[in-house]
């Protein structure tokens, strides 16, 4: 099956964070693709990627970027499919710069903004599963199973001293 989720990131250096998105999509069995695309460094490629996303069959785009993180917003400006933004933790400002760059979109062009770093990267994949779940019940079931397993793991390990 061709990719339903496009995972893009501003730089190879974002892969340490965005690999958590890919890992979770893999775990849920959701077909996806990953690619470095930068609004700053490869603006023409970004426009082409966003403009062609829908016709290529993508249903959701997850865009991770750090610092002056314009990638998710510019991607959202060029496509109608939902864009989920993951703020990558930058070295200088700990990702607060990334978060604010992504979250403060003007009314009319939404980006669904996740938490900074790994938590946001994982949750973006789970959110994508929820969005896809209406059209593809198998991913809704995979999401439910993930949640049930997570709950059970916590219930089975109540002692915080056991690691
Ligand atoms: N925020 C953006 C964009 C963009 O928004 O288009 N392109 C690259 N970057 C970010 O620059 C940071 C440093 O990149 P390098 O490590 O390549 O210098 C990365 O976190 C990347 O997401």
From TrEMBL:
Keyword Nucleotidyltransferase: no
Any GO MF annotation of the entry: 5-(carboxyamino)imidazole ribonucleotide mutase activity
EC number(s) from the headed UniProt entry: 5.4.99.18
SMART domains given in the database record: AIRC (SM01001)
Keywords tagged on the record: Isomerase, Purine biosynthesis
Protein name: N5-carboxyaminoimidazole ribonucleotide mutase
Listed InterPro entries: PurE_ClassI (IPR033747), PurE_dom (IPR000031), PurE_prokaryotes (IPR024694)
Positions with a binding annotation for substrate: 11, 14, 41
Similarity comment text for this entry: Belongs to the AIR carboxylase family. Class I subfamily.
